[in-house]
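// run 5 | inverse folding | seed 20
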């Protein structure tokens, strides 16, 4: 997966339709998430589409698998994952992921239906990180 800064640089110069295509492509670039990991425990609540996020790795290098049954939503979760992938768990738990995603201006670029689950995706990632780091979320 590409770094979030690299993705943001490319995204900045795209028109709206191309931004949609880029989000879909980012979703396709996600590491495959095995079907047995798509459970109620890994399901992100509050999303209009189904989204699953599963942490792997350890406190030194937190790694996430993620998937969605909707292409744009899968691209959105890919952005969240790109912001935190392979970082130390304490860093992810303390990170302002919303600020990291600001260059994408998702709430203005996409319908509220598509972005309504974004805070829950971020909260779940941070919760996993805090648990793995051994600190409160």
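// decoded
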């Amino acid at each position: 997966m590409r770094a979030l800064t690299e993705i943001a640089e490319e995204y900045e110069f795209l028109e709206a339709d191309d931004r949609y295509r880029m989000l879909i492509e980012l979703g396709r670039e996600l590491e495959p998430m095995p079907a047995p990991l798509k459970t109620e425990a890994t399901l992100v609540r509050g999303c209009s589409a189904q989204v699953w996020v599963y942490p792997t790795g350890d406190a030194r290098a937190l790694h996430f698998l993620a998937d969605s049954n909707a292409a744009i939503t899968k691209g959105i979760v890919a952005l969240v994952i790109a912001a935190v992938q392979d970082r130390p768990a304490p860093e992810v738990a303390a990170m302002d992921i919303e600020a990291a995603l600001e260059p994408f201006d998702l709430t203005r670029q996409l319908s509220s239906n598509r972005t309504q689950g974004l805070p829950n995706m971020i909260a779940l990632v941070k919760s996993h990180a805090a648990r793995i780091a051994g600190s409160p979320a």
